[in-house]
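Risk mitigation, structural track. In case the binding assays with zinc ion fail to produce interpretable data, a predicted complex structure has been prepared as a fallback.
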Amino acid sequence: MKKEEVNTNFYEAVNGEWIEKTVIPGDQPSVSAFLELHLGIEKTLMDLTAEWEKDQAKLNGNLKKYIKYYQMTNDFDKRNELGTKPFELILNKINQLNNLKDLDSVFEEFSLESIELPFGFMVMQDFMNSNNQILYFGATDLFLPDTSYYLDETKKSQLIGLFTMTTKQLLTLYGFSNEEVDKLIQEALAFDELLVPVTKSSVEKADYVKMYNPLSKKEVEALTKNFDLMGKAETLVKQVVDKLIVMNPDFVNAFDLIITEDNFSIMKSWMIVSNAIKFASDLSDDIRIAGGAFRRALSGTKEAQNKKKYAFNQAYNRFGQVVGLHYGETYFGPVAKADVKTMVLEMIGIYQERISGNTWLNEETKELAKKKLSTLAVHVGYPDELPPYYDFFDISSYEQGSDLIKERLAMNKIVNAHNYKKYNKEPNRNIWGMPASMVNAYYNPSNNQIVFPAAILQEPYYSLKQSASENFGGIGAVMAHEISHAFDNNGAKFDELSSLNNWWTKEDLEAFDKKAKDMITLFDGLETGFGPCNGELTVSENIADSGGIRCAFEASKKYDKHSSDEFFQNWARVWRNKASIEYSQLLLKVDVHGPAILRANMQLSNLPEFQEFYGITEKDKMYLPKDKMVSIW
Ligand SMILES: [Zn+2]
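Fallback model:
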């Protein structure tokens, strides 16, 4: 690396060559270290699927179902022959509805089948008592990805224009007449418009503790006189429901003004349009391509996936944990599992030390933070258990009279019924939220649990071929990032029992809030070439990155062969990323993760050891004065 490049743009110095030679795949909006690993796994799993299809003798029951379903998603001759016929099942159900009473009578069925409705229920862990699961209530998403697009007239007309054009093409393929298409889109947009003022922005959604708004049965009933919401809730969970957790209070407060008989016809058009988009993926080749057109245009993705990939992903997305478990068991052995687990525990140990040495917390708060760390559950590689609903899937082939929509509704019914059954029960903490074959990792505040699926445990994140410093700059920083989520602006509100409970002294909480504000300021408005970074939207991730790099660097330094150069280079390497302009702009509006270049560079600038090691001075772009640096964990 040239010194000049290092001091100006470290991310570019490390990744310049990669950025120059790497091409964004036509069916993707971007390419990154994450995506490269993902594509490698996709290839492995597609090859495996082809093998399994030829020889099913050794497959377990759920993998056999996966293959049977894959044979349906992959049979495009049959899909094209059936055309839009399978969708009639859903369309007829919606067309029969004429008023709110009719909606009431199909609400349970639609909810179980995941037929798009303007509002719905979900069972999740109780934020206040993580040992129980309760009912949350929320409204649908808007057609555009964020409320901010509706506030900017130019942007709004451009994107609504794009939505109208792509949806027109889709509905025409469905066989609606021009007149019907115009009416459906116009009315669907009119209903969408009613939801805009009562929908949370991406920034508001990022503060997920604010999702928790308990309302008693009486309170809900008083606000929703037009529809028997509580009755529906009780039908779904088959129990008495005495309260709901309302994720979006504005919607519930306006419920009786929006969900009215007068608005019923535009709501019905909204349902037809929304479901036509949603279920396009299960129909003929031209319809599934048209169904993704708006999303591709929004993200600057040039083309749809080819049939083979699409068919694989469609089946894989349904059976993700089943296929993922096989992947984990086959490609991530017990040796690596033990090695990675040791690394995580080492990282937690360093976190304990850092909290002991923390200079801005009182002893009382420190003790509780350490208590929370000591109860942190670590899951690595692949889960011990899968969600039980796969065992109840029963795939019927085309020959048996089925089609992809019938299959999807049947599987939705099983999964959703399973979800509603969890109401008022203790959660099973062995169940993971993502497949072992997914290149990602997460922290779940309701379980005080971190999960590292097998898929992310590869180069450049982790490899036995890489030096320890490189591994610490890669997976080590990811681990410490996930641990830091336990103490970011959201996670910090949950205690060692994973419940929403303030365990901070007043003084410490004020100090933390001040530091979180400083983190917002550090990133807010930073230019990326595609628009400014939103400091508030990305604060939780930036706090986690900042804790992640500090803790991982300290872990690396404990090794004899520690190399700061290798650590910093691999930290920057894992952030390599190339994206379309449209996608970059979209993410700036909706993604709680900041742009990759800032995650790499700003976190380095914010680290005194980095500045010292490369001799950065105030003349350099990578320079950040000490009084501007923000160190939280
Ligand atoms: Zn994160």
